Amino acid sequence: MSRLIKNKEKIVEKMNEYRANIEASVPKSYRQEMYRKTIHLSSLWIPTLIYFASGWVSLLVFSALLTGDVLIEYGNFRRWKWARISFSIIFGKSLRSAERSHLHFVPSGGVYVLSSALMCTLFFAKPVAVIALTVMLVSDTMAALVGKAVGERKIYKQKSLEGTNAFFLSALIVNMLFEPIYHFTYVSVIACAVATVVELYEDRLELDDNLAIPLSVGAVLTLLG
């Protein structure tokens, strides 16, 4: 029995050592970005809800969550005690420094994600809304992680060619995977290309990419599809 306990302790020690080595080899900024994008990907429940639920249910859920989110974030900015506690519990370390600023009110990405979910549900057909939001969630994540990991050739400010290519290719794959509900054509390729440009030049558009990407994809698929 004692030998088994000792072996178990050695295994645990080796696992902790291995985890520490991995963490040491991965830059802190990249680990933080991975954490943020994991939260981002968890929002894939949104297009899932749109597809399986009726339109009014989706609108009700998104409206309620958006209202609550804005109240908590604005309350945190105004230093309301209940809002600051709620804000800390919900968002934790997932926000960028600008989104934590107390100099002026800056909505988090969550506000824009919920806003885009609401607008896509209102303005686009179900398949289009699902594709548009999935592209935003998946491709934006791929662009950020690939760009930070291997992005060496900068093409616009901090945006890299590698990250931009990752966005475009992953957007194409998303559209292809939804072939059963929306036929993949040249229009889908155009939508992916437009979304890639929107993501690349988001600062010039002065519109958060969580809102600009799904709206651009949805608009192209709706107008040209």
Overview of this protein structure:
The protein is mostly helical. The protein has one domain. 78% of the residues lie in helices and 2% in strands. It has twelve helices and two strands, in the order ααααααααββαααα. It has a two-stranded antiparallel sheet with strand order 1-2. β1 (154-156) and β2 (159-160) form a beta hairpin. α10 (186-200) packs antiparallel against α12 (209-224). The longest helix has 25 residues, at 126-150. The model has no long low-confidence stretch (mean pLDDT 85).
Topology:
Blueprint (H helix, E strand, L loop, with lengths): L1 H24 L2 H14 L3 H8 L2 H23 L3 H11 L5 H4 L8 H15 L2 H25 L3 E3 L2 E2 H17 L8 H15 L1 H4 L3 H16 L1
Antiparallel strand pairs: 1-2
Concise summary:
The chain has helices at residues 2-25, 28-41, 45-52, 55-77, 81-91, 97-100, 109-123, 126-150, 161-177, 186-200, 202-205, 209-224; strands spanning 154-156, 159-160. The chain is an all-alpha fold.
* Overall domain count: 1
Low-pLDDT stretches are none
The average pLDDT value, as a whole number, equals 85
Binned, the helix content reads over 70%
| Strand residue percentage | under 5%
Largest sheet: 2 strands, antiparallel
Tally of alpha and pi helices = 12
Q: Could you give the order of the helices and strands?
A: HHHHHHHHEEHHHH
Report the radius of gyration as a whole number of Å: 20 Å
User: Major sheet: order of its strands?
Assistant: 1-2
Number of strands: 2
Assign an overall shape.
globular
Amino-to-carboxy terminus distance: 68 Å
> Structural class per helix/strand content?
mainly alpha
